[in-house]
Amino acid sequence: MKKYLNNLPEEVKDLMRLAGKVASQNNMPAYLVGGFVRDLLLGLPNLDLDIVVEGDGVKFAQDFAHRLKAKITCHRQFGTATINLGRNLKIDIASARCEYYPEAAHLPVVRPGNLKDDLKRRDFTINTIAISINQKDRGRLIDFFHGKEDLHHKKIRILHDLSFIDDPTRIFRAIRFEQRFNFKIEPNTLKCLSQALAQEMLTKVQPQRIRDEIILILKEDRPIRLIKRMEQLISFKFVHPRLYISENIHRFLESIQRQIKWFKKNYPERRPLDVWLVYFMGLLEHLKLSQVKVICARFAFRRGETKRILNYKKLKARFILNLKKKKIKPSQIFQKLEPLSYEVIIIIKAKFKDKLIHKRIADFFEIYNGMRIVISGADLQRLGVSPGPYYQKIFSQVLNAKLNGRLRSREEELALIKKLIRNK
Ligand code: ATP
């Protein structure tokens, strides 16, 4: 009976024993649920634990966190709390609740419930399996909706026919889980999904919720598979009526994938790429700047995201022509690429197969990016230059000289400054 819990790392097993103790002392039965249990049964690592408590989940969480001497964040109004244990280990705790949807595609009305109520409101059967962590039956598998069977047969199945009408974001989730686990959306679920699309349910969802789902899709390990399946099942018209995945876009996405791999392999110590954003920019390739602006505003992408998306869209043909000129100094490569984000540089590399462009981008990451000069404002002051905009001018001239290989030491930097001051 306890075999499912036996497969867990020792640290997690200890945590669950303690959680069981807290549950029984508070007289609030507690269960592991959701993606954690699904992944445990699939033999996949997952350190995002989800616990549902029949009773006051926040009180349970506070008691549990106190005994663990761990940090806790509570959301009283939702009856939820998160305990962060570091090393990627996180426990989400929620009070069991019952939900109903008074209006399709809107947020549900919630009231306290028991474990079965809580599992009944979930998206797919594979996410409804629970494991007791209570002392009296620790490790018992609870499977009201035949989730284990669907896991075994690799099926994505909704719990009732109106599931996608209640919450159309489940359409994205279905595709995400199907492709992630190599499962199949079973026929009735597929039928209900098509019916929800035919009723244009996606237009009734808050755009920000859709944006979050798009991001999750593009963050999956093999986003191109998901994009293909999305195009096949729902198309991308919900993003923009002109958006579709042509053969060209498809090839472009594959090129993006290669360049992301290249970056990750060669520069693991750099800021990690927002991979999803590069794919998203790729999806929008055929659209005009004005259409992309509409998308960014409608889905309320964050400022930094919109900026990167538009920066790429606004790149001029001249910029690329300059980048592949035979004679171009390192300082000019630096000036062109340094203001761009890594995401934009990677998509440029994916788009233009020109060898010189590739070499310049590689050189940029290898040598120029992050190159700094040694001299500082204090040095300038010592040389009698009073602080002001002139400082910046000197710094950039020195940096250019350094990029072009003309300065190799602090002394050489200082000598150049002195010359610049003299000739001012
Ligand atoms: P992932 O592995 O992608 O994190 P997950 O299954 O852990 O997947 P979460 O988004 O963290 O998914 O949600 C946790 C649980 O909450 C899910 O397993 C599912 O049971 C439930 N859930 C999440 N979103 C919905 C939804 N839109 N409708 C119904 N149930 C949902």
Can you put this structure into words, describing what you see?
The chain is an alpha+beta fold and 424 residues long. It has three domains: 2-153, Beta Polymerase, domain 2, CATH 3.30.460.10; 236-371, cca-adding enzyme, domain 2; 377-422, no CATH class. Helices cover 54% and strands 10% of the residues. It has 22 helices and eleven strands. It has helices at residues 3-6, 10-26, 34-42, 57-68, 115-120, 147-152, 163-166, 169-181, 187-198, 207-219, 223-233, 247-266, 275-283, 289-298, 303-313, 317-323, 330-337, 342-351, 355-368, 377-382, 389-403, 410-422; strands at residues 30-32, 48-53, 71-75, 80-84, 90-95, 97-100, 109-112, 130-132, 141-142, 155-156, 184-185. The strands form three sheets. Strands 3-4-5-2-1-8-9 form a seven-stranded mixed beta sheet. A two-stranded antiparallel sheet has the order 6-7. A hairpin with an 8-residue loop joins strand 8 and strand 9. Adenosine-5'-triphosphate binds at residues 34-35, 50, 122-123, 127, 167, 169-170, 173.
Largest sheet: 7 strands, mixed
Which class of the largest domain in CATH terms? Answer: Alpha Beta
Derived from helix and strand composition plus strand pairing, the structural class reads alpha+beta
Number of helical stretches of at least 4 residues: 22
Radius of gyration: 28 Å
Stretches where pLDDT falls below 50 for ≥5 residues? none
- The order of strands across the largest sheet is 3-4-5-2-1-8-9
Work out the strand percent. Answer: 5-15%
| Small molecules bound in the structure, each named once | adenosine-5'-triphosphate
Helix content: 40-55%
